[in-house]
Design a protein that fits this description.
4 helices, 6-stranded antiparallel β-sheet
């Protein structure tokens, strides 16, 4: 299955979550809801956006963050691998997508008032 086919499969599985769109991004595919990125697909792996309130659940299931190589350094993003047992359960996948979407919304920096 190609990366795009896998992303399409995830989008199809998330129909109860609402309209999800995809866009190619940095060698992967970004998943959006209402214009807000909440997930990425890189090769055959799905990653959801996490923050300090959602990360422990991923850690408890043995998940790890998305990393990438940049020159001689390894970078880490706030997207963590979605465990297969979650992907295989469409109801749980929708719940996790909702928490990823909320984590993404919380991460948006609001302009300071003057």
């Amino acid at each position: 299955m190609s990366q795009q086919e896998y992303a399409n499969y995830i989008v199809d599985t998330l129909t109860d979550f609402g309209t999800v769109t995809t866009r190619a991004m940095f060698g992967g595919i970004a998943l959006y809801k209402d214009g807000l990125i909440f997930a990425i697909v890189v090769r055959d792996t799905l990653y959801f956006k996490v923050d300090s309130s959602t990360r422990p659940e991923y850690e408890a299931l043995g998940s790890s963050p998305f990393t990438y190589q940049m020159k001689e350094k390894t970078g880490t993003m706030s997207y963590w691998e979605v465990p297969l047992e979650i992907i295989d359960d469409s109801e749980q996948l929708v719940q996790w997508a909702e928490t990823a979407y909320l984590a993404s919304a919380r991460s948006i920096k609001k302009p300071k008032k003057r």
